[in-house]
Amino acid sequence: MATLKLCVEVVGAHNLMAKDGQGSSNPYLELHFDGKKLQSTVKEKNLDPVWNESFYFSVPDPAILRNLALDAYIYNNNAKEAQSRSFLGKVTINGASFASSSDAVVLRYPLEKRGVFSRVRGELALKVYVTDDPTIKPSTCSSETKQTEEVPAFSEAEKSEEVPKESKKSEAKQQTFHALSKPDAANGALHQASKYVVGAMKAPEPAVPNVVRMNSAAPVQPVDFALKETSPLLGGGHVDRASIGTYDLVEKMQYLFVRVVKAKDLPSMDVDPYVEVRIGNYKGVTKHFEKQPNPVWNMVFAFARERIQATVVEVEVKDKANLKDDFIGVARFDFNEVPVRVPPDSPLAPEWYCLMDKKGDKIKSDLMLSVWIGTQADEAFPDACHSDAASSIDSTAAASTLIRSKVYHAPRLWYVRVSIIEAQDMIPQDKTRIPDCYVKAQLGTQLMKTRPNQARNFNPIWNEDLVFVTAEPFEDPLILSVEDRVAPGKDETIGKIIIPLNIVQKRADDRIFPSRWFNLEKPVAPDTDQSKESKISSRVHLRVCLDGGYHVLDESTHYSSDLRPAAKPLWKPAIGVLELGILNAAGLHPMKTRDGKGTSDTYCVAKYGSKWVRTRTVMDNLFPKYNEQYIWEVFDPATVLTVGVFDNNQLSSNENVDAKIGKVRVRISTLQTGRVYTHSYPLLVLNQSGVKKMGELHLAIRFSCTSFVNMLHVYSMPLLPKMHYIMPFSMMQLEILRHQAVNIVATRLARSEPPLRKEIVEYMCDVDSHPWSMRKSKANFFRLTSVFIGVIVASNWFRDICLWKNPITTVLVHALYLMLISFPDLILPIIFLYMFLIGIWNFRFRPRHPPHMSTKISQAEIVHPDELDEEFDTFPTNRNPDLVKMRYDRLRSVAGRIQTVVGDIATQGERFQSILSWRDPRATTIFLGFCIAAALILYVTPFQIVAGLAGLFVMRHPKFRHPLPSAIVNFFRRLPARTDGML
Fold first, then answer.
1. Residue 464: Cβ-neighbour burial (10 angstroms; 0-12, 13-18, 19+)
2. CB atoms within 10 A of CB 911
3. Minimal CA–CA distance to 651: which of 830, 368, 821, 399?
4. What is the DSSP letter of 788?
5. CA 485 – CA 495 distance, rounded (Å)
6. What are the strands, taking DSSP E only, across 44-122?
7. Which helix (H) or strand (E) holds 518?
8. How far apart are CA 745 and CA 409, in angstroms?
């Protein structure tokens, strides 16, 4: 037996000719070498068969191996006719090209014809090499030519393992030899007579990109994190119409209202009276007055009727004492006899009621009050002291102030532009030296400086603009001071000026105001003789104005709720009305512990435009019901409504920070006009342990259009006021100004009662939305790839057209292309008609609910814990240096890959630039010759003929294609780039 063997690994074939009359074939392979013949198994109904079978031939004389050839024939097994087969193609490999086992790779050979009239197509993937491994035995072969007597290379048992249990349809889709894995270089691994299974050598198939329709919903995420549509009874019944009404987007809730107005003729002049309203386990307490026999309270208490189980309402007047409060008198009412008031009825008139002592006898003191049953539509509801919790909760007047519902209006913000032009007669304290001057400007807590003057002299010139943020009413003046840098870290003030903003001119466009000279006030020490001071007055040349043509951004640009300029004369009329009903929350996560159990004292804050609303705080309840409705004017549909849920921690101490539970964003442009959206939104929060659901918030939203024409006109207008485009700010400058604006808004809203705290404003305005995050970087990358899915799908479709995968479709595309070239006036109408039909088709799949935060898009489900820890790290970092080093190395690795991609893109661009730069004189000469020839040909040839021939050439049949790159591509890749000059 010869020790040298020829090994042939048959991987698979691709794109074979259909020969069974049903659009498919039953291919098998025959190998001929040195008079011997081996046959593979038959693949039923498969034009892309995968065999993964190995065959071994003995080589009788290694000296004549170069003169031998290996022939591989692919036939179609005609199952209907016995011993009949059809030729599908052949491959001939010369013995001189046989490689050793260590150098062998899988090659794809195009199938050849057997004769002039043969019709073949496709490729055959083989790996052919020579080995002298003594453990390999030659395959059993037969010299007979009849198919029925041919012995396959594998036994029946091996053949049974070779056929997968998958369906024939899924097997036909396997086109694996285009993505083959690299074979093992070890000879032993290749030469073992192992059993191969179909698909064993396949590389993992790339994920098929999801085709996203134009109005498709977000990727599917867990049901617990998904949006849920609800059908609550709004306004006492289900709302199906687009009418605007009062409290028709919330569930009707009844309350017992008790208005305590005043008292008279209390028994003692030293009494410190207060009133306690009690019904069952719920109570409300007014503030007390010291030594006042005729106090006036004028307070309203509201008790939820669904929580009331008692039948008697007691209103007690007590005297505040150190140890135990003294009882003065009481007025009792039967709950069943309390009248019901329904707006628009007028408010119930208060009455004087005689107080009774503990025995039930009347006393001389009287109390004025009114008691009625109403709903949240009652005008007394917002200012009432609500008692929806047990009596263990603080129900005093001071505590009630912190839990009331309120409406806030953020101040109107302006940009202050200070143009510092020059200064004159800058005389330092040391008159022997030339000053090194710069200007320091301060507005409130904002501090900015100009660059030091480059030409050091007594009349410095800067020509710099400094921009600040201020709010109406203008409280803080603008303070400018000219500083002299005496030494590093040591500055001396030459003079300063204070400019009140009330006298500064306002502008709404880019017109230039006349500049002014301002005299500087020199700082004078208390022990200095003013008569010896220099009589020369230093002055500075300034131009100061309030820019009202800008919209002062106080929110993230992606979630802006208002885009109007600061100047009111530039405001456009409203296009609609947005109504929000905050119904309830469910399954909230406990944020504190009280009486040994987890609980929360929650309230909601909604922000749209300059109007902020805050619901009342529902105490000690993980399933609170708010049922409060609010309304806003809408000036632009490309805005976002933000609703946040918070836990109130101010009842125990004002120094505590209100905890953030979650928030919801709703874009107005995604809402249909007049429709009521009732959904339960999951409150998703990302923390260091991962994504977490903190509960659900139930909202009802309706957008009503008041002027359809104005709304359509808005879509053609710029998103921001025109000053943002005439005199734009840089991105860094906008971000700095946005933080300043948020600080001003938070400071002003914190003055309200109850205050809207700073942490609430910062959370609603997304102050910390731009720090580095590996998770966000991955999410944005996948968002970017999904944008180009349509282009990828279109390119794949066009590639199939060029490869004639479906001849009928290819012929139709050719006909359409020639028709468009013949009638170019039809190109644009057909494109727009096609887009119109796509839009009509996608109308069936339009989203039925507003978009919501997706854990899939945010890459929050598979994020690594270390990446989350890095995302929530402070700036600057406070982590272990070893951990910071590891993260820095990881960031370098990611940045290195990005750097490579950017460099490759730059290389392609530089190659285009080098075509006419004579960087490569031969390439430029070739291109110039091509240009002059193309100019002459195109001059004498009609454009339609050129375009038609070019299209037919691009979509030519695979028979006329060469597997190697085209000459144009080869020419372009040989062009020089600037990579040679890179260090």
1. middle
2. 20
3. 399
4. T
5. 13
6. 50-58, 69-77, 85-94, 99-100, 107-110
7. strand 516-519
8. 10
b/e burial code for range 567-596 (CB count within 10 A of at least 16 → b): beebeeebbbebbbbbbbbeebbebeeeee
Rounded CA gap, 265 and 268, in Å?
8
In tens, the pLDDT along 86-131 reads 888 999 988 877 888 777 778 888 888 877 677 888 889 888 888 8
496 DSSP assignment? E
pTM: 0.71
Distance CA(58)–CA(60), nearest Å, equals 6
Report the alpha-carbon distance of residue 589 to residue 662 in Å, rounded.
10
625 and 252 in contact (C-beta within 8 Å)?
no
Whether 65 and 76 have beta carbons less than 8 Å apart is answered as no
> Which residue bears the tokens 């396949």?
202
Which residues are CB-neighbours of 738 under 8 A, at least 6 positions away? Answer: 553, 554, 555
Q: What's residue 364's pLDDT? A: 87
Helices (H), 750-788: 758-764, 774-787
| Number of other residues whose CB lies within 10 A of the CB of residue 509 | 14
Q: What is the pLDDT of residues 343-358, one digit of tens each?
A: 778 888 999 999 998 8
pLDDT in tens, 830-868: 999 989 999 999 998 888 888 888 888 888 888 888 888
What is the distance between the alpha carbons of residues 840 and 822, in angstroms, rounded to a whole number?
29
Contact residues for 576 (Cβ-Cβ < 8 A; gap 6+): 633, 634, 637, 673, 703, 704, 705, 706, 707, 711
Q: Is the peptide bond before 637 cis (omega within 30 degrees of 0)?
A: no
Taking the C-alpha atoms of residue 439 and residue 296, their distance in angstroms, rounded to an integer, is 56
Average pLDDT over residues 785-798: 88
- For residue 344, cis peptide bond before it (omega within 30 degrees of 0): yes
Q: What is the pLDDT of residue 480?
A: 94
Tokens of 695: 């509960």
Name 322's Cβ contacts closer than 8 Å, sequence gap at least 6.
none
